[in-house]
Specification:
By secondary structure, the protein is mostly helical. The protein has one domain (2-104). 80% of the residues lie in helices and 0% in strands. The protein is flat, with a radius of gyration of 15 Å. The relative contact order is 0.16.
């Protein structure tokens, strides 16, 4: 279970660096650039620790799924991106895939 927690935290850190990347404006804003780099490092370290126990394919798919869904939701709320039905349905499908991988992988 500890590996899944680390993987979840790695996914949250991935959301952080993606948001930071947008706010860093091409790494021209020092504080957001620093936040982005630190979040990326935290995300990678936690992913690396999680894959010591979890299958790499599952861990990577879940990690990117958490990041993709989090970035898409952040885009809706922070950056005013489109919330049309097709986009929301695709986000739901990503969540379903992540949940499915979790359920199909032994702890």
């Amino acid at each position: 279970m500890q590996a899944w927690v680390m993987l979840g935290l790695a996914g949250v850190a991935e959301i952080g660096w993606v948001i930071g990347l947008k706010y860093s404006e091409g790494f021209t804003r020092i504080w957001w650039s620093s936040f982005t780099i630190v979040s990326l490092l935290v995300s990678m370290v936690l992913l690396g620790l999680a894959v010591k126990t979890l299958p790499i394919g599952t861990a990577y798919a879940v990690w990117t799924g958490i990041g993709a869904v989090g970035a898409a939701i952040a885009g809706l709320f922070l950056f005013g991106e489109s919330a049309n039905a097709v986009r929301l349905a695709c986000i739901v499908m990503i969540v379903a895939g992540v949940v499915g991988l979790k359920l199909a992988t032994p702890s």
